[in-house]
Description:
- The protein has helices spanning 3-12, 45-56, 76-96, 108-117, 132-140, 155-162, 180-191, 195-211; strands spanning 16-17, 28-29, 32-33, 62-69, 100-105, 123-125, 144-147, 169-171.
- By secondary structure, the chain is an alpha/beta fold.
- Strands 3-4-5-6-7-8 form a six-stranded parallel beta sheet. Strands 1-2 form a two-stranded parallel ribbon.
- The model is unreliable at 1-13 (pLDDT under 50).
Amino acid sequence: MSLQQHAVLKMTAPFVNIHTHRPTGCGIELRTAGIHPWDASKADAGALDRLARELESGSAQAVGEIGLDFVRADTPHERDAQAALFRAQLALARRCRLPVVIHCVRAFEPTMRMLREQEPRAVIFHGFVGSPEQARQALVRGYFLSFGERTFVSPRTVEALKATPLSQLFLETDDSPVPVKTIYTRVAGLLETSVEELRRATTQNYERIFIHG
């Protein structure tokens, strides 16, 4: 995205939606490419080669969503496959100097360990659902946390949200049909701030990673 295109987006659609499966074309919606951990058992060398070519073409702004989902990995073999795929994509992200968008379900500690082994340019935990302590560990490392519709049904995740500085915060719709403005409005209420302040903060965070980074 050029600076001119970004300026137009900011004027016409002010909300950053850092992760969505329902792109609207209205707003700042991140372009990603990656192999989801659910597809780890089907990901072969050819799939990684195709991903590498896509990333090297410059069509994606970040590698994602990638990571670990141990709810979907019932056996040691499946977990090993997810871990191997995650490591391979972290290596691609480092080679292409791209941020990563992380999918992490019941695998926080191994995810953090693998990120430490191959630290990407920037890390965004999408759809963060975790404890305030897990949030603190990620924030101390300089990572960004993104919250969405699932946040509101988890009291501990609401507490994690409240503990997240605006300078490391993103919001998203993920696969929810709820408009991103509704997410901003609800989060603004929880944080006792304004929608405009959230919009300003997430836009600055986006610019820091993807425009000036």
